[in-house]
C-alpha cells in the first residue's frame, strides 16, 4: 500500500520540508522493485526524479564550490565536487534523514538488505531533491542541498570520505601482506539499471560484499564492508599484543 499521510508528515518533519504535492514525495521514496509487486499503483518509481535530482545536485554543488573556493583550479573544483556528491556520502545523508525506514521496496529487495544499500539510499536522496525542485523550485532545492554540502565539506576535510578501496589496500598490505582481489559474483536487472554484486577476497578469505549500479560503486561498498572487519581484527590483535607486552595483565 502507498504511504499513509501520517508517515509522509513524519518524513517531512525529518527532512524539514513540507511538500505541496504529496505524491511527489511518495514517488521519491518508491523503489522500482516495489512497483514490480504493485503494478496497479497510479505513479512511477523514483528513477526519473533521481535523474533530475542528480543534475540539480551537481549544479548546486558546482555553484557552491565556485563561490566558496575562488583559489581553486577547474580540476580541483571537479575533484572536490565528485568527493562531496558521491554515492556513499549521499547514502549517509539519507540515513541521517531517516529515509531507509520509509522506502517503498519489494519484499525481496527488503529481505536482501535494500534499506542499507548505498545505491538505493543515494538514489532516494537525489529523488527527494528532484521532487523538491518540481514542487517548490530551484531556490528550495538549493537551500536543502546547502545544509548537506557544508557537512560534506567537513567530512572531506577530516578524511571521513576517503576512498575505501585505497584504505583497504593500505591496511591489507600492511597487516596481511596481501592485495585485495575484487570478484564479480552476480549482476541482475536490465541494461539501463543493472546492479552488480562484488566480493573482496584477502588471501583465501572473503571479507566483504558490496552491491551497486556500477562495478566501481559495488567495489567501494565491498571495500567498505571489508575494511570494517579488517580494522576490527587489527584492533583486537593490537590489544592482544599490548596485553602480552604487559605480562598478561588484565
Structure description:
With 250 residues, the protein is mainly alpha-helical. The protein has two domains: 153 residues, Ribonuclease iii, N-terminal Endonuclease Domain, Chain A, CATH 1.10.1520.10; 82 residues, 2-Layer Sandwich (Double Stranded RNA Binding Domain). Helices cover 62% and strands 10% of the residues. It has eleven helices and three strands, in the order ααααααααααβββα. It has a three-stranded antiparallel sheet. Helix 6 packs across helix 8, helix 8 runs antiparallel to helix 9 and helix 10 runs parallel beside helix 11. It is globular and about 55 Å long. It starts with a helix and ends in a 5-residue tail after the last helix. 33% of the residues are buried.
Tell me briefly what this model is.
The protein has 250 residues and is mainly alpha-helical. Helices cover 62% and strands 10% of the residues. The chain has eleven helices and three strands.
Descriptive key words:
Double Stranded RNA Binding Domain; Ribonuclease iii, N-terminal Endonuclease Domain, Chain A; three-stranded antiparallel sheet; globular; 11 helices; 250 residues; single chain
Amino acid at each position: 500500500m502507498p504511504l499513509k499521510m501520517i508517515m509522509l508528515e513524519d518524513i517531512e518533519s525529518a527532512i524539514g520540508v513540507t511538500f505541496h504535492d504529496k505524491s511527489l514525495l511518495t514517488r521519491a521514496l518508491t523503489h522500482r522493485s516495489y512497483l514490480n509487486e504493485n503494478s496497479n499503483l497510479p505513479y512511477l518509481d523514483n528513477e526519473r526524479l533521481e535523474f533530475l535530482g542528480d543534475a540539480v545536485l551537481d549544479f548546486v554543488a558546482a555553484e557552491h564550490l565556485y563561490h566558496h573556493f575562488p583559489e581553486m583550479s577547474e580540476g580541483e573544483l571537479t575533484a572536490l565536487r565528485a568527493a562531496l556528491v558521491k554515492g556513499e556520502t549521499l547514502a549517509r545523508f539519507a540515513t541521517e534523514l531517516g529515509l531507509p525506514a520509509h522506502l517503498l521496496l519489494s519484499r525481496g529487495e527488503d529481505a536482501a538488505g535494500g534499506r542499507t544499500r548505498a545505491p538505493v539510499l543515494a538514489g532516494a536522496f537525489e529523488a527527494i531533491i528532484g521532487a523538491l525542485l518540481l514542487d517548490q523550485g530551484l531556490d528550495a532545492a538549493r537551500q536543502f542541498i546547502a545544509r548537506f554540502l557544508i557537512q560534506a565539506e567537513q567530512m572531506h576535510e577530516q578524511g571521513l570520505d576517503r576512498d575505501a578501496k585505497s584504505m583497504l589496500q593500505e591496511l591489507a598490505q600492511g597487516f596481511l601482506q596481501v592485495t585485495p582481489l575484487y570478484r564479480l559474483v552476480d549482476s541482475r536487472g536490465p541494461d539501463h539499471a543493472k546492479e552488480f554484486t562484488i566480493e573482496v577476497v584477502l588471501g583465501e578469505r572473503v571479507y566483504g560484499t558490496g552491491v551497486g549500479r556500477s562495478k566501481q560503486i559495488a567495489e567501494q561498498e565491498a571495500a567498505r564492508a571489508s575494511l570494517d572487519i579488517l580494522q576490527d581484527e587489527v584492533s583486537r590483535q593490537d590489544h592482544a599484543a599490548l596485553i602480552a607486552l604487559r605480562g598478561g595483565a588484565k
